[in-house]
Amino acid sequence: MKEHRNYLHRLRLARGLVSVLAVCGAALLTAAPSGGPYGPIAQRYEVPTTSAHVYYVAPDGKAEASGLALAEPTTLATAIARVVTGDTIVMRGGEYRTGSLKLNQGITIQPYADEKPVIKGTKVATDWKKQRNGLWRTAWSTLFPARPADWWHRESVGQTTPMHRFNNDMVFVDGQPLQSAAWEGELDEGRFYIDYENGQVYLALDPTKRVVEITAHDGALVRVTGEVHGKKSDKKGYTLRGLTFTQFAYRALEIEGLEPEGVADPATFGKDVVGTTIEDCTITHCSRVGGYFRGDRFTLRRCRVSDTSTEGIYLIAGSDCLLEKNVLTRNNVEKIVGYFPSAVKIFNQTHRVVCRDNLVIDQPESNGIWYDVGNVDGVFIDNWIENCTDGFFFEISKNAIVAGNVFVDCEKGVRSLNSSGVRVYHNTFVNTGAAFERDGRSAEGDHFGWHPATGPGVEGRVNHEFMGNLIVADKALRVPAWSYRIADASPYTPLVVFGQPQHLAERLTMSHVAAFDGNVYVRSGTALPGTVVAWSPSAGEKTNVEYATLAAFRKAQPAFEAHSQEFELPSSAVVRSVALKNYELVPSFTATVPATTLPADVQKLLGWSVADATTPGAYRR
To answer: CA-to-CA distance for 221 and 309, rounded, in angstroms?
Structure first.
């Protein structure tokens, strides 16, 4: 497959006007998830001919070797110390047990030909002693004890998350991760215990005929902003292609950069490292985060990120960034409660971050993609989000377009919290719904200080749009961990929620939405009788009122949902196969929606015609 070397994307935003143009060899935009391929694509890498220097490295390379010839490879650490802007490091295949590397130059690191370099943060433990009680132990000097962040509320969730879960050490047996234990008495073949005071690692299983790996590095590569290896930073991001990073305590990759600590102009941050690109890489089994990435014009394309804990990808204070065709799976493998985990967290006043055609799956203990704190003009299109807590989560932020996505079996497929201008068009929701929520949270007295000041004020959490969406439910939706619903509400989770607390009924009398129409609701099975819409603010004793049918909602709120439709049909009468996860419409389902449910700017973004816009959901007929 040709590399999309000359891919360019431009964003023009004026009240959410967005136009993403892909040129010079990039695929044409089409609505709905593409179906793949997602994640790394196996390919052959040619040695670049335009780099000033090419350094060859190998697992058995010699530090004293020049690395300038294939037959004389050096070590990865030596090459990283030598490179300057524009150089390339070519890695031979095999395992590199290394880490704690630092770089400040805009270089490329790639494999040689079709070989597969794997950078590991563990070492093999071989010196085991069997105790009289049947347990095995070994001395280990590189340990990574840690404590929870100061905002973690032990008094609320301490009974569900033991303190040893916050330590960053990991143990693998024949490549499989073990879970930590609190003491020797909890050990079984799936657990390890660490005595930090005496530097001892304990196992219950017999390690003598197994490969046991224990973390020795808390990271692989840090792109620093200061001086290192006798060189000043060139402020250029690196390019990584075709590499695997695995088994690191804390995180595999990090890019340093300024993080605003208050409301800030985007011209004042994101400039320390610009233009980082990571393609066709795998980041897996990091005890906390796959990678922290700061800086403008960051691109993550066709990567696989899995088996992380608090976040897979943490994107911070950068603008004009792109995540596309990645696979993100199995975050929060330790099931830590109270840490707000997310497969992707986009944090702290980013602008124009585009998430397009990603596959986010198998996240039952984690959110999917979360824009959190002061983000502006997010674009979220053509993604497949399945089995997450909140699939797309937009909090304390302004303006987002959410279109052409598929959400399956999430607690909430789309969730807006204390945000404004979230425009949700022509998505397909399968056994999941959407929620627009707000409360009185403000910067005054907030436990995160200035965070709420970066988003809209309490009265400004308005102007959402929910148009042309298809919601198919053949079973009752998952019950959210919390909501603004009152105690005597229906036991059924509504398909669409507009929620706020009762005590703000007199203060927040304005509608959440500017437009709410042209949606199609299809229910069967245990999704009936159920609730179609939970609405606030409502006049009367209760600000949150639930409506079991579309007709009942229209009667109470005649300004909304005039062109929406409701059907009691099995899912097989609407989409091709829920069992096979084929959510294209069957030909016999002929329901249409007004073309006006998809504004012209979003039609252009998705590559749809006016005629296409009459089809509800993410898939064109």
So the answer is: 19
Q: How far is 405 from 617, CA to CA, in rounded Å?
A: 8
CB 84 within 8 A of CB 108: no
Range 355-380 average pLDDT: 98
Closest CA to 454 of 270, 265, 216, 254: 265
Q: Which two tokens stand for residue 365?
A: 């203990």
Give how far Cα 556 sits from Cα of 465, 535, 551, 564, 593, Å: 19, 10, 9, 15, 22
343 and 331 Cβ atoms separated by less than 8 Å:
yes
Report the candidate in 497, 494, 441, 429 with the shortest Cα–Cα distance to residue 464.
497
Confidence of residue 1 (pLDDT cuts 50, 70, 90): very low
Peptide bond into 37 cis (omega under 30): yes
For the chain, the average pLDDT equals 92
pTM: 0.94
> What is the mean predicted confidence (pLDDT) over 18-29?
36
How far is the C-alpha of 127 from the C-alpha of 212, rounded, in Å? 10
What residues contact 117, with CB distance under 8 A and at least 6 apart?
91, 92, 93, 94, 96, 111, 242, 243, 244
- Which residue shows structure tokens 């890695």? 91
Distance CA 440, CA 452 (A): 10
| CA quadruple 317, 359, 479, 553: dihedral sign | positive
What is the arithmetic mean of pLDDT over 490-499? 86
Taking the C-alpha atoms of residue 96 and residue 122, their distance in angstroms, rounded to an integer, is 10
Predicted local confidence at residue 25, as pLDDT:
32
Tell me how far apart the alpha carbons of residues 614 and 610 are, in angstroms, rounded to a whole number: 7
Maximum pairwise Cα distance, the chain: 81
Mean pLDDT of 439-450: 84
- Burial class, 618, CB count within 10 angstroms (exposed 0-12 / middle 13-18 / buried 19+): buried
Is 50 exceeded by the pLDDT of residue 27?
A: no
CA distance linking residue 465 with residue 402, whole number of Å: 10
- The rounded distance, in Å, linking the Cα atoms of 500 and 436 is 9
* Whether the Cβ atoms of residue 486 and residue 544 lie closer than 8 Å to each other: yes
Q: What pLDDT does residue 488 have?
A: 56
411-433 CB burial, b ≥16 within 10 A, e <16: bbbbbbbbbbbbbbbbbbbbbbb
Give first-to-last CA distance, the chain, whole Å. 29
Distance between CA atoms of residues 384 and 361, nearest Å = 8
CA atoms within 13 A on the CB side of 303: 27
pLDDT tens digit string along 111-160?
999 999 999 999 999 999 999 999 999 999 999 999 998 888 888 888 88
* Measured CA angle at 494 (ends 489, 496), to 5 deg: 130
Cα→Cα distances 573→73, 520, 529, 577, Å = 62, 13, 19, 9
| Confidence (pLDDT) at 539 | 84
Q: Can you tell me which residue has the tokens 């252009």?
A: 604
Q: How far apart are CA 604 and CA 330, in angstroms?
A: 33
Degrees, nearest 5: CA angle 93-358-179: 65
Cα–Cα distance, 338 to 275 (Å, whole number) = 34
Q: Tokens 């965070």 map to which residue?
A: 451
